[in-house]
Design goal:
The chain is an alpha/beta fold. Helix content is 50%, strand content 11%. It has 9 helices and 5 strands. Strands 3-2-1-4-5 form a 5-stranded parallel sheet. Helix 6 links the parallel strand 2 and strand 3. Helix 2 packs across helix 3. The chain is elongated and about 50 Å long.
């Protein structure tokens, strides 16, 4: 097994946002509790099962409709999970869920850690999100994190794990910061959405 390059060899760090810096399970589950209360014995009533079901619907929607805004993907996935639970979700509750993502909390150590990293690296956001939602996140839960660039699925026109998103990332960091592939480290929690495609593109990765 080859020795990984030292962190000092990188000039830029790209980050997935939701699930990596933002506490995705806490934010998502807080909006599903009213539905779960109406189906307490359903197999999806546990947090692990519900998160897995949501991810399954979300990924299917992204794959079938890569240009659909992420807020619409969220609302549709919410409705599909409700249907799987055997309960009815109102259009208002689906819309509220979809627009809430910009206020979902960051993990407790996120902002201070990112501020420290910014002293040494260019920080890049690469997210399957709309510009409006990430703007809320950057001015809210991630306020104070000095991202040098933000690349969204809305701008790219596709969702990770598409290689197009990572090609966009590579071209962006080279154009804006003069950073080549070997100078970029991609940091994420998602394996299928981030770790696998980044590796296929020859981008160094760090799983957290």
């Amino acid at each position: 097994m080859s020795t990984p390059p030292p962190l000092t060899s990188f000039r830029a760090l790209s980050f997935d946002i939701y699930g990596t810096l933002i506490d995705w399970p806490t934010g998502l589950l807080s909006h599903f509790r009213p539905l779960l209360a109406r189906a307490p014995t359903h197999p999806l009533s546990t947090p692990t099962a519900l998160l897995a079901a949501f991810a399954r619907h979300e990924q299917a929607l992204q794959a079938s409709s890569p240009k659909t805004p992420y807020s619409d993907i969220l609302a549709q996935a919410y409705t599909r999970v409700a249907e799987e639970l055997g309960v009815q979700a109102s259009p208002n509750s689906a819309e509220t869920f979809a627009t809430s993502i910009g206020a979902w909390p960051a993990f407790p150590d996120t902002v201070s850690a990112m501020q420290s990293l910014s002293n040494h690296y260019e920080l890049i956001a690469l997210s399957n999100i709309t510009n409006a939602s990430i703007s809320c996140t950057l001015s809210g839960p991630l306020a104070g994190v000095p991202f040098a660039a933000v690349y969204t699925a809305e701008d790219i026109g596709s969702y990770k794990p598409s290689h197009a998103n990572f090609t966009y990332l590579l071209r962006g960091v080279e154009r804006e910061f003069g950073v080549q592939r070997e100078g970029l480290l991609h940091v994420a929690h998602g394996v299928g959405s981030d770790m696998v495609p980044a590796g296929e593109m020859g981008i160094a990765r760090a799983w957290i």
